[in-house]
Amino acid sequence: MNRQTFELLILGSSAASPTSERNPSAQLLNIAERFFLIDCGEATQIQLRKFKAKFQSIDHIFISHLHGDHFFGLPGLLSSMHLLGRKQDITVYCPEELKSVLDLINKVSETTLNYTIHWKFTKNDGLNLLFEDEKVEVYSFPLRHRIYCTGFLFKEKPLPRNIDKFKLDKHKVSTADILLLKKGEDVTNSEGELIKNSELTIDPPAPRSYAYCSDTIFNPPIVEYIKEVDVLYHESTFLEDLQARAKKTFHTTAKQAAEIAKMGNVGKLLLGHFSARYGTLEAFLDEAKPVFDKCEICFDGKKVKI
Amino acid sequence: MNRQTFELLILGSSAASPTSERNPSAQLLNIAERFFLIDCGEATQIQLRKFKAKFQSIDHIFISHLHGDHFFGLPGLLSSMHLLGRKQDITVYCPEELKSVLDLINKVSETTLNYTIHWKFTKNDGLNLLFEDEKVEVYSFPLRHRIYCTGFLFKEKPLPRNIDKFKLDKHKVSTADILLLKKGEDVTNSEGELIKNSELTIDPPAPRSYAYCSDTIFNPPIVEYIKEVDVLYHESTFLEDLQARAKKTFHTTAKQAAEIAKMGNVGKLLLGHFSARYGTLEAFLDEAKPVFDKCEICFDGKKVKI
Fold this sequence. Notes:
The structure is a homodimer of 306-residue chains. By secondary structure, chain A is α/β, with parallel strands linked by helices. Chain A has helices at 44-50, 74-83, 97-108, 165-171, 175-183, 197-200, 223-226, 243-248, 254-264, 282-288, and strands at residues 6-12, 26-31, 34-40, 58-62, 90-94, 117-121, 128-132, 136-142, 150-156, 162-163, 187-188, 194-195, 201-202, 209-213, 231-235, 268-272, 295-297, 303-305.
C-alpha cells in the first residue's frame, strides 16, 4: 500500500559554529507534499539547493529560538524567494522578536518583498496548535534552554478507514455511503440490510508523528510531549565527559538524549546539533545505543523516511 | 626579490541570489599579513573554512552596502569568532544602519561578544581615508547604486628605498645612517665624506593598489578613484543584451566594466557579481576582452596575486 509521504531531510547537523562538514541547524519535513522548514541556520538556502529541494515549495517555516545558528539563514532565504519571483504567502512560526529583526533588515536594505509573510508567534505554555489542515497538525511545546525556545511536534491526522472493495460490491453499498464507511459508521444497503462497518473496512495505518527538540537541557518533563512519536530528533551537543558543560550551557549529551527517547518509548531517535569540537561522531552512538538502541546520527543530506 | 604579500582570495562571485556554484559577495585581501574582509555575503564563514583561510586573523571588515548579498554572512561570522574564543578587537567599516541590525540581533539572542567591535561609518563624499598603518592605507569612495554604496581602494604605502649592501660596506656608512638612506636622504660617512643617496640605493618597487567596485551602475566618474590601480574588481552582473536591465537595477554589464577599466588604465580587471541566471561565464570574457584585454573571471576560491 502506498502511504502518503512523511520524509525528513537533514540540512544541517552542527551546533553553534558550522564546520567544514556540518552546517548549522535546519531540516526540511515533507508530509503529504506540505513542506515544513524547521529552523534555518546560515546557508540553509545553499543546502536546499545542494540537496535538490525545491525551496519555493516551502510555505511554513518554524524557528525554535533566536540563537543565530537557528535563524541566520532566514533573511537570505526569504530574500532569495523574493528575488526568484515568489508570489504565494508564507507563514513563519517563531519567537516574537524575530519579526523586528526581519523588519529592520528589510528597512535598511530598502526591500519590499513581493509576497506576504504571516507571522505566528510561539508560546511557552504547553502543547500549542500552530498549524492544521485536513492531513497534518503541528504543535509547539516548551524546551528549557538559555533563552526562550520551543520544540515542534508534527502529526498526521487519523487516516480514513480502508474499504475492502470486493466486499463492497457484494453488499451493494451505494457510492454515497462510502464516505460514511470511511468515517467508521455502519450503513444500510439498497436492500434495507444493516451492514456493520467492521464487515467492510479494515483499520488504516496509525497516524505517524515526528518531534523536534533543539536546543534543550536534559529535561524529562518533555517526555509528555514526545511520547510514542515515530521519530524523535533530540539535540546531543556533547558527549558524556562534558555533561557538566552540557548542563551549564543548557544542552544535552548523547546518553541523556537516549534516556529521553527511552522514557518516551519513541520509534527511533535521531541525534544532531553536534559541537564543532567533534570530528567523527561514532562516539555519540557508542554512548547512546546502550540506553536506546534504535538510534541514528544525523549528517547533512541524510534522508529519513518516517 | 621577495615583496610583501598582496593577495586576493575570492570567496563569493554571485550577485543577489547564490547558485550551487557561486556564493554571494565576499573577498579576503592579504596585504603584508593584514587581513581585510571585503563584503560578507551569507555563508562567508563557511567559504573561509573551505578555502583554508584563518578567519580569526581578520581584523578589518569592509561592507559596501546593505543589500543582503553583501552582509547576511556578518552576524554568523562575528558570532563564530566569539564562540571560538576571539579576544582581539575588530573594526567594521560600513553604512551606519548596519550597527543597529547587529545590535538588535545580539539583543534578541541575548549575546554579549567577548571582543570589541569598533564601528567606522563610511561617507558618501569622495575619497575617504578609513584605515592607515605603516604599510597600508584604505579608502572608501562613492558608487552609484539603488541604495547608499561605497567602493574601497587598498594601497601599499611607498616602500623604503632599497640599499645596495655591497656598496654600503665599501663606503663605511654607519648602521644609524641606513634609515636615512632608506628614506632617500644623503649621508656623511665615518670619514666625513658626503655620499649621495643615489650612489647607495635603488628605487623600490612602485606601491601596489587594488580597487573594489560593487555594486554600481556604469558610472565613468569613478575612474577618478580607480585610475592606474594594479587590479580593479568591477561588478558585471549582466551581459550586454540586458544593458537596459543593468541600468534599471543600477548594475553594470561586462562590456561596461571593461570600459571603466580601459578609461582607468588599470593593470588588470576582475569581473564578478554574476547574476544567478548565468550558468557558464565565458560570454562575460567574450564581451569584455575586445574592450579591455587584461580581464579575468572571478570564481569562488580564485586567488589573485597583485
